Amino acid sequence: MSEATVILQMICPDRSGLVSELAGWVAANGGNIRHADHHTDVGAGLFLSRIEWTLEGFGIPRQALPEAVCALAERLKGQVQLSFSDELPKVAILASKQSHCLFDLLWRVQSGELAMQVPLVIANHPDLEQLCRGFGVPFFCVPVTPVSKAEAELTILRLLEEHGIELVVLAKYMQVLSSGFLERFPDVINIHHSFLPAFKGAQPYHRAWERGVKLIGATAHYVTEDLDDGPIIEQTTVHVSHRDEVSDLIRKGRDTERLALARALRLHLRRQVMVYRGRTAVFA
Amino acid sequence: MSEATVILQMICPDRSGLVSELAGWVAANGGNIRHADHHTDVGAGLFLSRIEWTLEGFGIPRQALPEAVCALAERLKGQVQLSFSDELPKVAILASKQSHCLFDLLWRVQSGELAMQVPLVIANHPDLEQLCRGFGVPFFCVPVTPVSKAEAELTILRLLEEHGIELVVLAKYMQVLSSGFLERFPDVINIHHSFLPAFKGAQPYHRAWERGVKLIGATAHYVTEDLDDGPIIEQTTVHVSHRDEVSDLIRKGRDTERLALARALRLHLRRQVMVYRGRTAVFA
Amino acid sequence: MSEATVILQMICPDRSGLVSELAGWVAANGGNIRHADHHTDVGAGLFLSRIEWTLEGFGIPRQALPEAVCALAERLKGQVQLSFSDELPKVAILASKQSHCLFDLLWRVQSGELAMQVPLVIANHPDLEQLCRGFGVPFFCVPVTPVSKAEAELTILRLLEEHGIELVVLAKYMQVLSSGFLERFPDVINIHHSFLPAFKGAQPYHRAWERGVKLIGATAHYVTEDLDDGPIIEQTTVHVSHRDEVSDLIRKGRDTERLALARALRLHLRRQVMVYRGRTAVFA
Amino acid sequence: MSEATVILQMICPDRSGLVSELAGWVAANGGNIRHADHHTDVGAGLFLSRIEWTLEGFGIPRQALPEAVCALAERLKGQVQLSFSDELPKVAILASKQSHCLFDLLWRVQSGELAMQVPLVIANHPDLEQLCRGFGVPFFCVPVTPVSKAEAELTILRLLEEHGIELVVLAKYMQVLSSGFLERFPDVINIHHSFLPAFKGAQPYHRAWERGVKLIGATAHYVTEDLDDGPIIEQTTVHVSHRDEVSDLIRKGRDTERLALARALRLHLRRQVMVYRGRTAVFA
After folding, report:
1. How many CB pairs under 8 A join A and B?
2. Most distant CA pair in chain C, distance
3. pLDDT band at residue C2, thresholds of 50, 70 and 90?
4. Catalytic residue (one of D228, D229, D248, D255)
5. Residues on chain C touching D39 (C-beta within 8 angstroms)
6. Structural domains present in chain A
């Protein structure tokens, strides 16, 4: 279970022989493939591949691997991402006042379900400081007002840089990140409290109640400039009835939100998600 | 299971003592209540009640009941609907070319799951005639072209009238009914192939694929003038993955569509659905 | 949402007029019914009713209500339970080493989802002390060995008594309570990590993996002398695949366990569960 | 969608380089891989692989492929199964009196969802003859009594042989096939009306009701000598409540049964199921 592995994610133009070429390259270097998953998007003419093999005994030394896979990608005219299962990515969690997603994520990190480090939590309200302290995670409060927003984002960017953050998770952070922010830090996962594309934007539970839907949902997705339009990683739903008030939708929603976010994040951390053309392939 | 019952559905302004008043009225007339379900919409100030009791031995004769419940409703300043479980409503099914919902409904009628009569099926294409014949159900083909639409709707209305139809079910009828039609025949249930309000309108599966959602759904709802905006009765979903093409979404969707439609129709036929303010209370 | 209510749960032999009699009694005393739910088990000849009405303005004073409802129950030859929504039951949580259910419950209490007090947590291992401290909940470690079990149970019973506990929740407490314990303290809810009656007893996830099932589940139930045979309150499932090892089943199971337990406990606390003949009616 | 493919399913002892060896063999013969899926059962030391590639242009002619893949399997000391997507397997459906699964399967064959031929339906009761006639499928009634069972099985085996049947589907065939039958014809898929291993054997819905479960299920599995113990392909569940009588469980069960059976059969027909050690790997 804990043996270190190498994970290669490749997207390239589709043609014959790609599975063999990739698997052959791993085998030629003495790699023992643990998982191999591929997908061809026929319409897009693209081939997507995720290969995971045992690090120990592999012919190419760890530090030489980035160069080697780049050469491989060049040969296939593709894009590649290389990861090692024993490297814990540094992830910052952004939150506001609600605790359910933050709590859930910190508990999963602590219990070993989510293979990542959390060097810091940033919130625009002070409410969750105590919670973070309980988990031994540094907490930074960066208030946001319409006037201070640009400055606040700069503060956040600086904190991310100082802590070497690779990924930001918005765990009910109720602020919209500017396009300027995303240009400088594009790797962001968000949880939206509706089954997108239904109820994009604000107050989805109120609008769901107004519409009289019989199920509500949650969507974990990568953040892009167009609000709530980013590539979807995971969606969950839960049934509601006429007896449920808006407050019940919010309560039921908390459970489905944290499940969707936790699952999406785990898939991301295990490098099981590949993004292309505004969508994801999830090799689960 | 088969004992005949009376079903009373009442909506009236909320106040103290309504449950007692309704149950007391039934008891005073010697009725044995089998089911009693109530809901108060606090925001709207409305009380909704569905009471079902055994017909046999009830003090008010069957033919006098309509007048009696109207008097009751007047006293409560409410609206009432009276039904008898041993009366099979006459339901017309409208379809186009796809067979899955029609097949499913006819099978459920035949097997006794749906307590209704189907005096006729109407379609704007001839494809499903054979299917209907297999179930012994008269089939009428009423083609619709942009030019002939008004005339076609008149033909349909005439057929509904001739057959004493009380409810129309759109089982993948791919035509939009005009507001003129709905004014003359408002009792229509439709199945839409998305979890509304996502993907209203045409081609929901194609748009779901484009958006890269991880679940698709179906919505059974009453038809109103505003397309796909009617009161929702039932919604179902099913997971999809990046491996699913549009054709797979359509295939998976068929199963979830027919389930949603069959459940909604059963709820309607058992008088478990109450509509108010653009939404439904479902006493299941 | 926060207006205090009275909740009456009645089980009695079925006969005509019971709904009217109960609702009439509430109305005669000036009560405004907020929820009324009934069920007739025809085979058992039993009538079950749950009625909830506003406390304020009710004609019978709070302290006189127990006697009044007992008189009512006697008249109907039934059993009655009376509760007030503004009374927070004292609940003890028993755990062992695993944190997921305990964490989840304490968070839900803190966030107001579960209307109860937790005067203490008892565990047979010391691991969860820190967690409890974070929530400000007293923690008692009562180790259990085959030799010390009887004594340990006496210690637990004493703690329950000292703290005025009304309900015990086994949040992954990996010890079987003796029949002697249950005789003295019968109100216990347990979470079992399988969809009962499949995989009763020990190691359900290992056995589920061995059997090659495609879904695993969790069951929240009242504890009876016969292990895992008590009345079921809630069951949940989650899909698994051949790729899932036993450790994955355990991981996925944690999410479905805590959901089942939290839902069951909420239903119990809101007095929506009625137990009879080894089963439950859940008025949700 | 309709391009013919070759499907190779291989199980062999695990070792390094297998993915490369298999993919390399396909590539060396000019095959264009469309899907490649692998699984290593570490505990069992087994490697399972399913590879699908385009038939057109493949270097080894169709009629020479069986010999070629046998040689490949021998080299890997494995077991192999070879299939072509353009060959429609001949499947016999066995039924008794209930129509829901039979109806569903015949409709799915007719609509193109299930890529198979149905040369005949066999039932131990005459009730479903009319239904089969509607689909143009020959119907054979082979009554079974305790006395005639052995003889009836011989008649069925003869019918299977005469029609060149490769797979038998038990669509609510309420007879247990003898071990002698299974020895002579082992390829049988059954639908059991419970989430196995709960409620093995007779009357699962009655026993589920007795136990007071909150969900019921269905299990599609390969048939083995030990009743209801065969490798599971697919399981589905549906929620039930205290309001559901046994007849409601049976009704709700019909929907979940036919879904489980149809999905399992589709997976089998597309050669996405591999059986080993009493369990299945499902490459979906």
Report:
1. 79
2. 63
3. low
4. D228
5. 242-243
6. 5-84 (3.30.70.260), 90-282 (3.40.50.170)
